[in-house]
User: What shape does this take?
Amino acid sequence: MATTKSKPRNAFYAQSGGVTAVINASAAGVIETARKHKNRIGRVYAGRNGIIGALTEDLIDTSKESAAAIAALKHTPAGAFGSCRYKLKSFEESRAQYERLIEVFRAHDIGYFFYNGGNDSADTCLKVSQISEKLGYPVVAVHVPKTVDNDLAITDNCPGFGSVAKYVATSMREAAFDVASMAKTSTRLFVMEVMGRHAGWITAAVGLADDANTPIPLLLLFPEVRYDEAKFMAAVDAKVKAFGYCCIGVSEGLLAADGKLMSDSGVRDAFGHAQLGGVGPMIAQRVKDTLGLKYHWAVADYLQRAARHLASKTDLDQSYAVGKAAVELALAGHNAVMPAIRRVSDKPYRWTIDIAPLSKVANAEKMLPRDFITADGYGITAKARRYLAPLVKGEAPPPFKDGLPRYVRLRNAPVPRKLATPFDV
Amino acid sequence: MATTKSKPRNAFYAQSGGVTAVINASAAGVIETARKHKNRIGRVYAGRNGIIGALTEDLIDTSKESAAAIAALKHTPAGAFGSCRYKLKSFEESRAQYERLIEVFRAHDIGYFFYNGGNDSADTCLKVSQISEKLGYPVVAVHVPKTVDNDLAITDNCPGFGSVAKYVATSMREAAFDVASMAKTSTRLFVMEVMGRHAGWITAAVGLADDANTPIPLLLLFPEVRYDEAKFMAAVDAKVKAFGYCCIGVSEGLLAADGKLMSDSGVRDAFGHAQLGGVGPMIAQRVKDTLGLKYHWAVADYLQRAARHLASKTDLDQSYAVGKAAVELALAGHNAVMPAIRRVSDKPYRWTIDIAPLSKVANAEKMLPRDFITADGYGITAKARRYLAPLVKGEAPPPFKDGLPRYVRLRNAPVPRKLATPFDV
Assistant: This one.
């Protein structure tokens, strides 16, 4: 049976890259909005484990999920359909992959492609958007922004970041109260390592822990500022002399003076073992060796990006909004675009959704502006605070049952396969 | 002016050892209850940095704090007056310390001694309770239980533990959702290291992340179960084969087959305990070396015990209740006791406060019962779940301002010194 223009076509949605506390809210935005347009969009098929699900024809029929289950995605962290780290190469390098995508899309009458991810995913989405033109299969591709790293171009901020920002600022504030209690006879140094390998957005967010209402002796080690041990030790020493203790937020991507990752610099960790991936313990040990301070350190790792229990309401709303907008943009005929958040005003915080061309988003990386970092390199400026403050605002706790968050797991019913041919990824 | 029986005497309150998310609720319980009995208790003086504040005559006049500030302690983590790791030795070894305490108590007419801590503090409190009899100064000493380790004798559970339990179970559940999303192409192993030096109560609480509603492939490494690498690797391998990923909760106090700590930083605290940390990354690396799984690991460290934003309502209520009961017990003439939580029923959970003699609490350590651990050594039994479940129940979030928890800092006004002599601690 041939597909006609008037007949609704199906949509493909997939999650890509590192997941977040609120990426499923974007999924809910896509699916709930598509369900409101049944005359245009038939079913939403999700890729099991991202684009791999498309390549292997491993599709999930989201129409089998109840409205309540889809709504529950708004309070459930991580990727409900599975994500992947898998980047499509160029048409020239990997023509077989694109032809396979078309084969699967054609078999399941997929006319809309929604890809929820970061920089790499924007690039994949851009390539898929060109399938129509280059390979003659009609599909509209819209990217749904997501990354805790907050490093996507054009959009004022990235869905997923605000919740991590809220988590790291809250955690540092809480830990600082703890260290302050212990400093007289015990711990005087607390180091928390945070994510953000190339851009210091999450490191900057740690800075929110320290504000006029709740001052904390806090130093930040940004990936943008090369580590200068003598200067840093002097800064720690000054904080300890003034306040009795010191807290440090350090990016996993901190660079040594020679530009190499501190965590790859061959220095042994706090326990004399070969590097296990922690610049946090390394910094703690160095301060102890130099200043003799007893330390504690934390590496929250996945806890920071999965902490749906402490999500930012602003972030949640925006995550849902970009999912919804993606469907609306596709229905309006936009191809190769991404809904981008535009800040209308700082205070009161107001935002709206713009249309960003994917060609300007793909593979670009938005770095932390230098004027967000104080002159000494260890703090955030008033400008940074103005930018960050609204992103962590508002609470949106999940439902709790028996004292623990109750998160949804979808049925994830497979769409019956139509192709006889397997495909290796 | 001599003190008469009818004249109100002052109280001393101090926080000791590692702090918790809810120890300040006990402080609020003590102070608010004392304020209701002004005919019997004059002022509550808090020790700045625990017992050190008493020895150095560094006292805080809590009567200078507003009712609102004291009430705000209920939603503020860590030790509002400062804590310390400092253990009084025996009368025979340190007679000068006890004489100094009496000197300070006499100077400030302190007739009540409330000490908020764990095992070591219970011992200190017991010794102070004997001052009347052994050194002739009239003082009533009541211990207020507190420890995230949940290892105090007599009491069914320890204030502070329920909130850590809620934090680690929530965090593991959230991280498990994250790993499940990533497992197809990336991370398949997640290791979270938790506190609990000798007793595996916190490790057991991680087990709550996995329940009938939300099954998670989870293995626990208890301090009570010697690490058996071959057996453990087989267990991880089985989980990964069945579920595609595996989560591990490991105690900082995990012991190797030879009974030595798997990871010992070599640093010891004032009590002579080893400062731990780092077994999480070690286990992750071993699994990678053996099974080749990509891993992530987290060490929440202070984050777990300071996380007031995720406190258990049950824990909060009990923390307040033991503070209140301590004052009531002292007023009823009980000396050398501790208010202990007695479980009346599991379901519905009901509890009451009993009176425990300090001689039975001091220096005892309540270990995790062996029948709380499954036969294979890697999980918790139904009996453990029945015990743990009510302790994490209920939410009691702090007020948020601008997206972050708003915690109180007290004025902590000093009580004017009356003694000319300094005292070195």
User: Anything to note?
Assistant: The two ends of chain B are 30 Å apart (CA to CA). Residues 265-270, 273-277 of chain B have pLDDT under 50 and may be disordered. Residues 248 and 330 of chain B are 45 Å apart (CA to CA).
